[in-house]
Amino acid sequence: DGGITQSPKYLFRKEGQNVTLSCEQNLNHDAMYWYRQDPGQGLRLIYYSQIVNDFQKGDIAEGYSVSREKKESFPLTVTSAQKNPTAFYLCASSPRFGGYNSPLHFGNGTRLTVT
Amino acid sequence: GDSVTQMEGPVTLSEEAFLTINCTYTATGYPSPFWYVQYPGEGLQLLLKATKADDKGSNKGFEATYRKETTSFHLEKGSVQVSDSAVYFCALSASAGGTSYGKLTFGQGTILTVHP
Predict the structure, then answer these.
(1) Which of A16, A51, A69, A89 has a CA between 20 and 30 Å from the CA of residue B113?
(2) Whether pLDDT at B59 is above 80
(3) pLDDT at B61 over 80
(4) B73 close to B90: Cβ distance less than 8 angstroms
(5) How far apart are alpha carbons B75 and B77 in whole angstroms?
(6) Which 8-state DSSP code applies to residue B52?
(7) Which residue numbers in chain A have pLDDT < 70?
(8) DSSP at A73
(9) Is the pLDDT of residue B96 over 60?
(10) Rounded Cα–Cα distance for residues B78 and A6 (Å)
């Protein structure tokens, strides 16, 4: 079955360390997204990519970095510059960028805890 | 920018009760509204969507009508089940003249708990 795989499900890191979250999709979707979810705040867009080798900042990109070297993969690095990195991170994809006929397909998320 | 306002939760209901979760929005261009559902420990799943004004989206007994005049997309279900317990998100994708602005704007989510 096609879908989005995020790994690991739980991740623990010490403050000051960079950490990379994996996101792989086999849906042949062009667009991929990273969202951050915090209690009571809904989802906030970190980065998105419309096509391979291209990506744009979302609303809260500071302290994060991404790459899009392959269509199937869109890894997110949480750097030590991110002031409050503990959160639930969701990766998503869509057939193309935005629009009513391009709903997002989500992975099951990675819960990152930084102490 | 665009914004989505959802009814604050948590919402607690007994099984077979009627459910309404309000969602209103402000947007430029031509918005397309969605409802997503998140079950415990999982990502979000598309529940239903609407593509034009007065469209009614429906799925799994849930319904929502896109009301352009009131900029609303309220979610309803006539008889909830324990299995409907989840977090529900209203979201909006705006576009104009065939060009999409791209990203979805999400509401803050409404936690629904249904008791037997």
Answers:
(1) A89
(2) yes
(3) yes
(4) yes
(5) 7
(6) S
(7) 1, 97-101
(8) B
(9) no
(10) 35
d(CA A54, CA A97): 12
From the list B41, B44, B103, the residue facing A106 with the nearest CB is B44
Asked if the Cβ–Cβ distance from B103 to A108 is below 8 Å, we say: no
Question: For every residue of B68-113, which 3-state class applies, written as one string?
Answer: CCCCECCEEECCCCHHHCEEEEEEEECEECCEECCCCEECCCEEEE
Give the whole-number percent of chain B exceeding pLDDT 90.
66
Contact A109, A9 (CB under 8 A): yes
Supply φ then ψ for residue B83, to 5 degrees. Answer: -70, -10
**Paired tokens of B104:** 């979805």
Q: B19 and B110 in contact (C-beta within 8 Å)? A: no
Q: Radius of gyration of chain A from Cα atoms?
A: 13
Name the nearest CA neighbour of B41 among A26, A17, A104, A109. Answer: A109
Which of B49, B89, B102 is the closest to A97 by Cβ?
Answer: B102
- Which pair of structure tokens corresponds to residue A4? 């989005």
